[in-house]
Design brief:
Phosphorylase Kinase, domain 1; alpha+beta; single chain; 3 domains; 47% helix; 251 residues; 7 strands; seven-stranded antiparallel beta sheet
């Protein structure tokens, strides 16, 4: 199975629903775990599905709709054949109109601001933790892996963070642009392989309203303390499983 075949199969995949006993789907999901590009595509597909689900859930149910449907059921079956066809056509057209309305909405409502980028990256760290594409404490291997996968391997770390032991890295995406996540263990966790610091790196030009200086901007984001700054052509977000005082030790 190649990536294009896997995408065709995964287009029908709906995260959050019970998985079918489907060998092709299982093979496609397994390939996505091993292929970074396919994995990023699947993450974007899942995000789109979540937006569409949220849009459907946000549609209010009119009061008395159930009673109205039941009361009109008898009338529907007593309609002449051509009237039934008209009613069916109207229903189909209404459903199509709803779909064509929701899909553009899902795209246009995408918040491309830096604040949303920061929030999305922090949620990613929380959701996928401790999942990494490469697990190693060797910073040279991490930089090499990221560079080989067209990510950001030439990042510059603050001096205090240089002295912290890394645990690995992951390849992410934002609006179709590559993002590197480098994970660290501050030493406050019992296990040396447990990450509690997450550094996200993206091209500065890929995020509107990104910080303009190397002075960190501290914020509390999704129950994590974050510090954000820009250095040359890169923008950085450092997130910690701790408060701001804890985070300031590493910048």
């Amino acid at each position: 199975m190649n990536k294009e075949q896997a995408k065709d199969i995964l287009m029908l995949y709906r995260p959050g629903l019970p998985e079918l006993d489907d060998s092709e789907l299982a093979a496609a999901l397994d390939l996505a775990k091993r292929d970074p590009e396919l994995q990023r595509w699947l993450q974007e597909h899942e995000a789109r599905q979540q937006v569409i689900r949220a849009s459907f859930r946000a549609i209010p149910v009119p009061e008395g709709l159930k009673e109205q449907i039941l009361s009109e059921r008898k009338v529907h079956f007593s309609l002449p054949l051509h009237r039934k066809a008209v009613v069916a056509l109207v229903c189909v057209l209404s459903a199509l109109l709803l779909l064509f309305t929701l899909f553009p909405f899902a795209r246009q409502s995408e918040d491309k601001s830096f604040a949303n980028f920061r929030s999305r990256m922090v949620r990613t760290a929380s959701r996928h933790y401790p999942k990494m594409d490469l697990e190693t404490s060797d910073p040279v291997q991490i930089r090499s892996y990221l560079s080989q996968h067209q990510a950001h391997g030439t990042y510059v770390l603050p001096a205090p963070l240089e002295r912290v032991t890394p645990t690995g890295c992951a390849l992410l995406q934002w609006q179709g642009k590559p993002v590197s996540m480098v994970c660290f263990n501050s030493g406050s966790k019992p296990s040396a392989n447990t990450a509690d610091l997450f550094l996200f790196i993206i091209n500065r030009a890929d995020v509107p309203n990104a910080p303009t200086t190397g002075k960190p901007e501290f914020a509390q984001t999704n129950s994590m303390a974050t510090a954000s700054w820009s250095e040359k052509d890169k923008t950085y977000v450092l997130a910690a499983l701790g408060d701001e005082a804890f985070l300031r030790r590493f910048y």
